[in-house]
Design goal:
- This is tRNA(Ile)-lysidine synthase.
- Belongs to the tRNA(Ile)-lysidine synthase family.
- It is found in: Cytoplasm.
- It is built from 14 helices and 19 strands.
- The strands form five sheets. Strands 3-2-1-4-6-5 form a six-stranded mixed β-sheet, sandwiched between helices. The chain has a four-stranded antiparallel β-sheet with strand order 7-10-9-8.
- The chain folds into three domains: 212 residues, 3-Layer(aba) Sandwich (Rossmann fold); 81 residues, Uridine Diphospho-n-acetylenolpyruvylglucosamine Reductase, domain 3, CATH 3.30.465; 98 residues, no CATH class.
- Helix 3 links the parallel strand 2 and strand 3.
- By secondary structure, it is α+β, with helices and mostly antiparallel strands.
Length: 442
């Protein structure tokens, strides 16, 4: 092995030094040049270094007939190197961008495989970083997007690492040539209708012919922008600390913020803070869609504004903004009779209900609000449920799915609301565990 490749191995080992104590390293192995070199480097290092357990993951998208042979190729390579291989077959959801849909399916599979504190290693390199920067620039990305691919980020229960972002494609090709490695040439990589392929085959050759150091300087710009994004994240944390206050409805388990501290910030700081808060919850809106935030923020007190985003909705209620997604956005069917009230009742798309203490005798039912409900309260007589909910300031988006306990036509209790949950009427308590967030991102 020449000194050029010794340097490549040493750089890889240095970049992975903080992660040497991880339970396992998984290698995202497409079978292409980049991941083949990464796999080979790690397999060789494992012979002389004490590394976490290595394994490879090949995601089969099923988008091309030729791809059906790739798992066998990957198995052959892994078998020769003594690295276990896990093949995951995924369904790519149809949509406007096939590239994006395939990427989403791939990373969902990686997230499933990566367990607590384990590491997934991907083989993106410096050329990929430059392509990402230019691609996002052409799409009008902000500082976050232009900071490029991060070297590390959370993935499922573990971490995703890109240890070769300081390595060029030319270095990988030289390594593969010296070690006589074989790899898959994906025919779709030549299809220039895909934006990244067009940049790679049409734009970058012209750029580097005129400016040979273009890839290096673009990667350097991405690093500068990444540092700037870190400062913006610090500012967002400061601003969010003022808005991330307790609520009387924290038991809903929903992310929420106090609106008043946000309203005191400049428009730019509001967008920065909200982008930081929303980033793990949903794909962030582009510039044109931030008008939805203005409408939500400036709505009158009796309005019920909603800002619809890619993976959920922001609602405004009780001086706060609330993030709803998953089951919270699906209609809930009427539960009906509670035949075994001593046992928890699973409510379709609406969490779990329990009744503790001295359970009322007779046939009990669970219903949801339809309007016009009346409840008898000790010392207060009969009261409209709507007025009682107003008194307790229950957010509007909760009211239609708040479980109501009935005996015949008598409303006995409203889950979780002090004074209405059964304790005042008898020695029992109606408790509702709302549905959890299931947006499936981050």
């Amino acid at each position: 092995m020449n000194p050029f490749n010794i340097d490549l191995s040493a750089r890889l080992l240095l970049n992975l030094k903080p992660w040497r104590n991880a339970p396992a390293w998984h290698i995202a192995f497409s079978g292409g040049l980049d991941s083949t070199v990464l796999l080979h480097l790690l397999a060789q290092l494992a012979k002389t270094e004490s590394l976490p357990a290595l394994s490879a993951i090949h995601v089969h998208h099923g988008l091309q007939a030729v791809a059906d042979a790739w798992p066998d190729h990957c198995q052959s390579v892994c078998g020769a190197l003594g690295v276990p291989l896990h093949v995951v077959r995924v369904q790519v959801q149809p949509g406007a961008s096939l590239e994006r849909a395939a990427r989403d399916a791939r990373y969902a599979a990686f997230s499933e495989v990566t367990q607590a504190d384990e590491v997934l290693l991907t083989a993106q390199h410096r050329d990929d970083q430059a392509e990402t920067l230019l691609f996002r620039l052409l799409r009008g990305a902000g500082v976050r997007g232009l900071s490029g691919m991060p070297r590390q980020r959370p993935l499922g229960k573990g971490h995703l690492l890109r240890p070769m972002l300081d390595v060029t494609r030319a270095e990988l090709e030289a390594y593969a040539s010296e070690h006589k490695l074989s790899w898959i040439e994906d025919p779709s990589n030549q299809d220039r209708q895909f934006s990244r392929n067009y940049l790679r085959h049409q734009v970058f050759p012209a750029l580097t012919a005129r400016w040979p150091q273009a890839l290096v300087t673009m990667a350097r710009s991405a690093a500068h922008l990444s540092e700037a994004q870190g400062l913006l994240d610090d500012l967002a944390q400061i601003d969010l600390s003022q808005a991330n206050t307790p609520s009387d409805f924290d038991w809903l388990g929903l992310p929420s913020l106090d609106l008043a501290p946000l309203e005191k910030l400049s428009a730019a700081r509001q967008r920065n803070a909200l982008s930081h808060w929303l980033e793990p919850l949903t794909r962030l809106p582009d510039s044109d869609h931030w008008s939805g935030w203005v409408d939500l923020r400036d709505a009158t007190g009796d309005a019920r504004p909603i800002w619809r985003l890619a993976d959920g909705q922001l609602h405004r209620a009780g001086g706060r903004i609330w993030w709803l997604s998953g089951a919270w956005l699906r209609a809930v069917p009427a539960p009906g009779a509670w035949l075994e009230p001593a046992q928890p009742l699973v409510l379709p798309d609406n969490g779990v209900l329990t009744l503790s203490g001295q359970i009322p005798a007779g046939i009990l039912q669970i219903r949801y609000r339809e309007g016009g409900e009346v409840m008898a309260l000790p010392g207060r007589g009969h009261r409209d449920l709507k007025r009682l909910l107003n008194e307790t300031a229950v957010p509007q988006f909760v009211r239609g799915r708040l479980p109501l306990l009935y005996k015949g036509e008598q409303l006995l209790a409203v889950a979780n609301l002090p004074g209405l949950d059964g304790k005042a009427q008898g020695d029992w308590h109606l408790h509702w565990q709302p549905p959890g967030e299931d947006q499936g991102l981050s």
